[in-house]
Write a structure and sequence with these properties.
The complex is a heterodimer of chains A (122) and B (274). Chain A is α+β, with helices and mostly antiparallel strands and 122 residues long. Chain A has helices at residues 22-30, 72-84, 109-117; strands at 3-5, 9-11, 48-54, 57-62, 91-96. Chain A is globular and about 40 Å long. Chain A starts with a strand and ends in a 5-residue tail after the last helix. Chain B contains nine helices and no strands. Classes of the chains: A alpha+beta (122), B mainly alpha (274).
Chain lengths: 122, 274
C-alpha cells in the first residue's frame, strides 16, 4: 500500500519477509524518502552517512545540509516512519552526525541529474 | 503530538538553584560552551532585528540567513551540555537574564546598520575564532560539530568583510558610524574572547583549546585588516576587564529583557512541540 511522505513521494509496499541484506534493504527504503525542500531522496542528497541492521534494530547515521535546517524534525520523522513500516524492523535509531560536514559534493550523480532537470544547479 | 511545556521547569544549576541529578554549578567546560552558545543565541536575535529595514532586500535576506545560522549553531552548542549532565532544554528556556554568558556587545539592539556591520566583523569574528579554537581541542562533540559551523561562518566572514570595506571606503558619515560602533564593541568583546582568568586556563588545560595569546593572534589575522579600514589598530584597544564576572565569563551587565524573552521563547511555551 503506498504511503505518502511529506505529501509528495510514495513509499513502496513493505517486504513481507526479512531481507538477506538488511543494510541494502534499509538503503533502498531510504531512497524513497524525499528531502522536504528538494525533490530528491535523502540518499541522493547525501544525508545518510551510514546504515546498519542488527538484531532487529535499524540504525541510521543522518546529517543535514545546514545546522539551522528547519526541516530536521520532518526528515527524521520521515526516515523513522519509512523504516518502521517494515515488519522485520523492531526498532529504529537515528544518530545525528555532523562529521564530515555536508557539502553539495555529497549529492549523488543521480541526484544531480534530477536536480538539473528541474533547473537546480549544484 | 503537542504538549504544553510548563512555564517554570525545575532548576538545572545554571539558571537557578537545586536540581536533582545535575551539577549544582557549571564547570569550566560548561561555562565555555554557554559563553559560545549564549553569544550565538543573542547574535542571532540582533541579526534578526534587521530582516526588514536593512539597506536592501538582499541584505535583509543575508541577515535572515545569518540569524538562522546563529540559532542553528546555538542549538548544537546547547545540546553539548547534555554530555556534561545538564538538561539543554532547561538551560535554553529557564534562565533569567543575569544568568546569560553572552558577549556584552549584544546586550542591546544595534542602533543602526553600521553597528550591524561592525558586529559581523567584531563579534561574529570573535565567535568564529573561539569556535575554531574549540574545534582543535579534545572535546569530541566540538571536534565533530564545530567544523560544519565554521563552514557556515565563512559566509558571515565574507559578508562582514565586504560590507565593512564598503562603508569604510565610502568615507563620510557612514564610515564614522562604523568606526564608532566598532570601537564601542571591541573592548568588551576582547575581554570576552581573551579572558585572563583561571576558568579559561582550566578549559585550556582540560580541553586543549588554544591559549589566549594564540586566540588573539588568530583574531588579529581575521579582523585586523577590516578594522584598519577605519583606522582601528587592535593593538591599541585594551580589553575591558573592569567588573569582570568570572562565573559568567563576561563583563558586567546582561542582555535586555525583551531579547531574553525571545531567546527563551517565553511567548510560545504553550505551543512547543515535544
Amino acid at each position: 500500500m503506498p504511503h505518502a511522505s511529506g505529501g509528495r513521494d510514495r513509499w513502496s509496499t513493505p517486504l513481507a519477509e526479512p531481507p538477506e541484506d538488511g543494510d541494502a534493504a534499509l538503503r533502498a527504503a531510504l531512497g524513497e524518502v524525499l528531502d522536504p525542500e528538494l525533490p530528491i531522496s535523502v540518499m541522493d542528497l547525501g544525508l545518510v552517512y551510514g546504515v546498519a541492521f542488527e538484531h532487529g534494530t535499524a540504525r541510521v547515521d543522518l546529517t543535514f545540509t545546514a545546522t539551522a535546517c528547519p526541516c530536521m524534525d520532518f526528515i527524521k520523522q520521515d526516515v523513522h516512519d519509512r523504516i518502521a513500516m517494515e515488519p522485520w524492523v523492531e526498532a529504529v535509531e537515528i544518530n545525528e552526525v555532523w562529521d564530515p560536514p555536508w557539502t553539495t559534493a555529497r549529492i549523488s550523480h543521480a541526484g544531480r541529474r534530477k536536480l538539473r532537470t528541474l533547473g537546480v544547479g549544484v | 503530538m503537542t504538549a504544553g511545556r510548563e512555564s517554570a521547569r525545575p532548576g538545572n544549576g545554571i539558571g537557578s538553584a537545586e536540581a536533582p541529578g545535575v551539577p549544582s554549578e557549571p564547570g569550566p567546560l560548561a561555562r565555555h560552551i554557554l559563553s559560545l552558545a549564549d553569544t550565538k543565541r543573542l547574535l542571532g536575535i540582533r541579526y534578526s532585528d534587521w530582516l526588514l529595514g536593512s539597506p536592501s532586500l538582499e541584505t535583509g535576506i543575508a541577515a535572515s540567513s545569518m540569524a538562522q545560522d546563529e540559532w542553528g549553531h546555538a542549538r548544537l552548542l546547547y545540546s553539548m551540555l547534555k554530555r556534561l549532565g545538564f538538561d539543554p532544554v532547561a538551560v535554553e528556556q529557564d534562565r533569567p537574564a543575569d544568568r546569560y554568558y553572552s558577549a556584552p556587545a549584544l546586550d542591546a539592539p544595534f542602533p543602526d546598520w553600521a553597528a550591524f556591520v561592525a558586529a559581523t566583523v567584531v563579534v561574529d569574528g570573535a565567535l568564529a575564532v573561539a569556535l575554531e579554537s574549540f574545534s582543535h581541542g579534545n572535546f569530541a562533540l566540538a571536534r565533530s560539530r564545530v567544523p560544519k559551523m565554521l563552514a557556515e561562518e565563512e559566509y558571515h566572514r565574507q559578508f562582514g568583510a565586504a560590507w565593512f570595506a564598503r562603508l569604510a571606503g565610502a568615507g563620510g558619515e557612514g564610515a564614522e558610524h562604523l568606526e564608532r560602533a566598532a570601537r564601542a564593541m571591541l573592548p568588551a568583546t576582547l575581554a570576552w574572547l581573551l579572558p585572563d582568568d583561571s576558568a579559561y586556563e582550566a578549559v585550556v588545560a582540560e580541553c586543549d583549546i588554544w591559549e589566549a595569546d594564540r586566540v588573539g593572534e588568530r583574531y588579529r589575522d581575521r579582523v585586523g585588516a577590516a578594522l584598519g579600514g577605519v583606522g582601528i589598530r587592535l593593538e591599541e584597544i585594551r580589553p575591558a576587564r573592569e567588573g569582570w564576572d568570572s562565573e559568567r565569563r563576561r563583563g558586567p551587565g546582561a542582555p535586555g529583557k525583551e531579547a531574553v524573552e525571545r531567546a527563551r521563547g517565553d511567548r510560545n511555551r504553550a505551543l512547543f512541540v515535544e
